[in-house]
Design goal:
By secondary structure, the chain is mostly beta strands. It has three helices and 16 strands.
Length: about 200
C-alpha cells in the first residue's frame, strides 16, 4: 500500500485480510482496497473494490521495483471526474492532497502494470465541463499494457441501461494520457448499432 501510494501520489488503503500467494503465481490478495480521489473530486474514492489480486515478478521483488504483471479488481466501484477547469481525477502526477496520508519517505518509483482485469465492476463518469454523467454497471474488462506503449482494452458493460461491448487499441497510451495524439482503433457494439473507428485521437 505504501509503495502504491507513493507511486500514485494518492492514499491507498487495504481494508481487510492480506495474504501472499505463491502458486500458480507470486503475488498478494487483499480483501478490500480504497484508492483516494483528489479533494476537489468529491467524497467518492477513485476505486473501492471488494477484493484485489496482484501478481508480481520475482525480478521486481528482488530489485525493489513497483512492477505488476497483472492486477485484478473484484467488484470495484470506480469514480472518474473531470472538473470544469479540465482537471481529471485519474491524473497521478499530483502530490498527495493536504491533510491526506503522507507518502513514504524517499524518491517515488514509477509504477509499471502489464495487465489489469475488472470483474463485476461499476463506474461513474462525472464530466463537470460538459454537464454529463454516465453510469456503467456489470463491467467486465481486460486491459493489456505491453512495454512498447500500446494498450488494448476489451470488455462489456451496461452503459446507462444499454448493453455494449468494446474492443479498443491505442498505439501510444502514455502520449494519449498526457493529452497528445495516438493512433487509435475502436470497435463498439450495442443493441441496434455499432461504431468502428481507425485513425488518430
Amino acid at each position: 500500500a505504501e509503495r502504491l501510494g507513493q507511486s500514485l501520489g494518492r492514499e491507498v488503503t487495504l481494508l481487510g485480510e492480506v495474504r501472499p500467494t505463491f502458486w500458480p503465481h507470486l503475488g498478494v490478495r487483499a480483501a478490500g482496497l480504497l484508492v483516494g480521489n483528489p479533494d476537489w473530486a468529491g467524497d467518492a474514492p477513485l476505486i473501492a473494490a471488494e477484493a484485489l489480486s496482484v501478481r508480481v515478478p520475482w525480478s521486481a521483488i528482488l530489485a525493489g521495483e513497483v512492477q505488476i504483471d497483472e492486477i485484478t479488481l473484484v467488484a470495484p466501484e470506480i469514480t472518474l471526474v473531470r472538473a470544469a477547469d479540465g482537471r481529471v481525477s485519474w491524473a497521478f502526477s499530483e502530490a498527495p492532497e493536504p491533510g491526506g496520508a503522507a507518502a513514504p519517505a524517499g524518491p517515488a518509483r514509477p509504477l509499471t502494470i502489464t495487465a489489469a482485469e475488472i470483474s463485476d465492476g461499476a463506474l461513474t463518469w462525472r464530466d463537470e465541463a460538459a454537464g454529463q454523467d454516465i453510469r456503467i454497471t456489470g463491467l467486465e474488462a481486460r486491459l493489456a499494457l505491453p512495454d512498447d506503449g500500446t494498450a488494448r482494452v476489451a470488455g462489456s458493460a451496461n452503459v446507462n441501461g444499454t448493453q455494449v461491448t468494446l474492443d479498443a487499441t491505442a498505439a501510444r497510451l502514455p502520449a494519449l494520457l498526457e493529452g497528445g495524439l495516438s493512433d487509435l482503433e475502436l470497435a463498439l457494439d450495442w443493441s441496434g448499432g455499432e461504431l468502428r473507428f481507425a485513425g488518430r485521437g
